[in-house]
Design brief:
With about 325 residues, the protein is an alpha+beta fold. α1 crosses α2 and α3 crosses α8. It folds into two domains: about 240 residues, Gcn5-related N-acetyltransferase (GNAT) (Aminopeptidase), CATH 3.40.630.30; about 60 residues, Barwin-like endoglucanases (Beta Barrel). The longest helix is centred in the N-terminal third of the chain and has 16 residues. The chain is globular and about 75 Å long. It is built from ten helices and 16 strands. GO terms for molecular function: arginine N-succinyltransferase activity.
Length: about 325
C-alpha cells in the first residue's frame, strides 16, 4: 500500500536519491547531503511542533508500506519571504499610445518584485519515473492539501506553488542562457545553490534595476516565459484541478510560472470531511477515497476504499493500520 508520511532524518539517502533524479532547476531538492539533512531536521521539528508555526517546512515521503521503498517527495512550507526575500519577476502589461498617429501598443515587461510574503507554499513534488502512473502523483499532491486542511490555522490564507521552467533535453535553460546569466555571471547550478543556501542578497545586488522589455529578448527566451518544464506538466494539471491559477509571477532564473489559490478555496481542503472511524474486515465501496489523519503531528494519508454512512467512515484493518488510527478516532476523507 502507498502511504504518505512525514519525512524523518533517517530518510536522507532516499531524499538524496530523489534529488539526484529530479535534475537541474529543482531548487528545493539540491544534490547536497548537508542541505538535505538540515531540511529533514527542520521537517521533524515542524511535525513535532518544536518551532514556531510560520517557520515550519513539512516534508512528506511517498512510501510503499510492504517494501519500505520511498518513491516520491512533496512539501508544504508554512510561510515564505519572512526571513529571506521571495524574489520573482512580475510580467507587467504597459499600454502606450499616440493619439496623433492613431497608434496603440501593449508592451510586456519583467519587473523584479518581492511579493507573497507570508504565503504558504506547496512544492518539492517529485516522483520516480515508474510511479508517475496509477494515481501515485495525485495521492502525493493532494496529501499536501490534506495536511493543510487538518489544521488550517497553521497556514496562510493564500497558497502558492512555483513550477520549474523549461530546460532542453541536454540540460540547457533558454531563459537563463539568454537573460538571467547576463546579470548573474555564474553557472545556473551555482545560482540555484545560492538561492537555497544564502539570504539571497546577491539577487538584490545583481538583478536588473529597470524593467526588461520582453519584446527585445531573443525568441528562445520569450517562448519559455511562464511555461512549465515537460516533467512539470502533470503537476500543473493537478494544481489547476485544485483551483490554482497563474498569478503573473515567474521565476527569475528559469521563468517558470507561479500559481496561487486561496487556502480555503483549494478543492481538497474545501471538500474533505471529518468522519469517525469504524473498522471492518471488508469494505463495500465502489471507488477509493483520499483518507488522512486529522492532525499535523501524526499526519499520514492513503487512497483506499472507505464505506461512508452519515458521519462514519468504515475502513479495513489494513487501511486503519496504515494510517495508525483506531475505531472512534477522526479521519478526513475526500471522495
Amino acid at each position: 500500500m502507498l502511504v504518505v508520511r512525514p519525512a524523518a532524518p533517517a530518510d536522507l539517502d532516499h531524499l538524496l536519491e530523489l534529488a539526484i533524479l529530479s535534475g537541474p532547476g529543482f531548487t528545493s531538492l539540491p544534490e547536497d547531503p548537508d542541505q538535505l539533512a538540515e531540511r529533514l531536521d527542520l521537517s521533524r521539528d515542524s511535525f513535532t511542533g518544536a518551532i514556531k508555526p510560520q517557520d515550519r517546512w513539512y516534508t512528506l515521503m511517498l512510501e510503499e508500506s510492504e517494501t519500505g521503498d520511498v518513491d516520491g517527495v512533496g512539501s508544504v512550507k508554512a510561510a515564505v519571504g519572512l526571513h529571506r526575500p521571495f524574489f520573482s519577476f512580475r510580467v507587467v502589461n504597459n499600454a502606450q499610445s499616440s493619439p496623433s498617429l492613431g497608434i496603440k501598443l501593449e508592451q510586456k515587461t519583467l519587473v523584479l518584485v518581492n511579493e507573497c510574503t507570508g504565503w504558504t507554499e506547496v512544492g518539492s513534488l517529485f516522483l520516480k519515473a515508474d510511479r508517475r502512473k496509477g494515481g501515485a502523483g495525485r495521492l502525493l499532491s493532494q496529501s499536501r492539501y490534506m495536511l493543510i486542511g487538518a489544521e488550517p490555522e497553521l497556514f496562510a490564507d493564500n497558497v502558492l506553488a512555483e513550477l520549474r521552467g523549461v530546460f532542453t533535453p541536454d540540460g540547457a535553460c533558454p531563459f537563463w542562457d539568454h537573460v538571467a546569466s547576463k546579470f548573474f555571471p555564474m553557472e545556473f547550478d551555482e545560482a540555484d545553490r545560492l538561492t537555497g543556501s544564502t539570504d539571497k542578497q546577491f539577487i538584490l545586488d545583481l538583478s536588473p534595476r529597470h524593467p526588461i522589455y520582453i519584446e527585445l529578448l531573443p525568441e528562445p527566451a520569450r517562448a519559455v516565459i511562464g511555461k512549465v518544464h515537460p516533467q512539470g506538466v502533470p503537476a500543473m494539471a493537478l494544481l489547476e484541478s485544485e483551483g490554482f491559477r497563474p498569478n503573473g509571477l515567474v521565476d527569475i532564473f528559469d521563468a517558470g510560472p507561479t500559481v496561487a489559490c486561496g487556502r480555503d478555496n483549494i478543492r481538497t481542503v474545501r471538500d474533505a470531511r471529518r468522519l469517525t472511524v469504524a473498522i471492518s474486515e471488508e469494505v463495500n465501496a465502489e471507488l477509493p477515497a483520499l483518507i488522512s489523519t486529522d492532525s499535523v503531528s501524526g499526519f499520514r494519508a492513503v487512497r483506499q476504499r472507505a464505506y461512508i454512512e452519515g458521519d462514519v467512515a468504515t475502513l479495513t484493518r489494513e487501511t486503519a493500520d496504515a494510517l495508525k488510527v483506531r475505531a472512534g478516532e477522526t479521519v478526513r476523507v475526500k471522495t
